[in-house]
Amino acid sequence: MIEDWTDRFQGTRNLPRRVRDRLIQVARVIQLKKGQQVFGPSNIPDSLFFLYEGRIRVSQTSDNGREIVLYRVDAGDSCVLTTACMLAEEAYNAEGIAETDITAVVLPKPAFDQLAAEEDAFRNFVFAAYSRRLIDLLRVVDDVAFGRLDMRLAARLLELAGDRKEIPATHQQLASELGTAREVISRVLQDFQKREMIAQSRGRIALLDKAALATLANSD
Fold this sequence. Notes:
Blueprint: H1 10-13, H2 17-26, E1 28-32, E2 37-39, E3 47-53, E4 55-61, E5 67-74, H3 80-88, E6 95-98, E7 102-108, H4 109-118, H5 120-146, H6 149-161, E8 166-168, H7 171-178, H8 182-194, E9 198-201, E10 204-207, H9 210-217
Antiparallel strand pairs: 1-7, 2-6, 3-7, 4-5, 4-6, 8-10, 9-10
């Protein structure tokens, strides 16, 4: 049982107490298992979504089957796509999958509409969070259109690894992360391996030289 979930999110934590109490009263907590679909192209969102624990991968698949990861929602964040589709009353054009077991807080649209109309602080919080996430999404578009793939792959390997030295990932999964073809990823990874920055085994990639990867990721 979560006593006061509004403490988990910077935006809600800074809201006036009366607004936080209203949120606690009308929102509900849900839990999903790793691998479950959180939302998909056939759904029209009817709630504002706050991720309390876990991580969600948001991706889009083209007509020819190529997938690209748009962004991830981490604990303490809201989902820009949910907000946008709920405001427009349109179905999702992407899919959200739980990468871990997740706990989320959902605010039904009628309660959202009422709070947004009556509480300036809540409305400002929602649109500030929406703006930040939209900027992140535009960076993805810019990277796909103009970014060097070796730099993007190095950065994504470091991001996926975090504090670890090895990640479970196939070439196809990395291609989906970056919106490119598996064959292209394979060529770049082979180059990384020749330069002794990584080592590959079936379904796993060891990061041998994180410093070199970081230098590449931040190069111009």
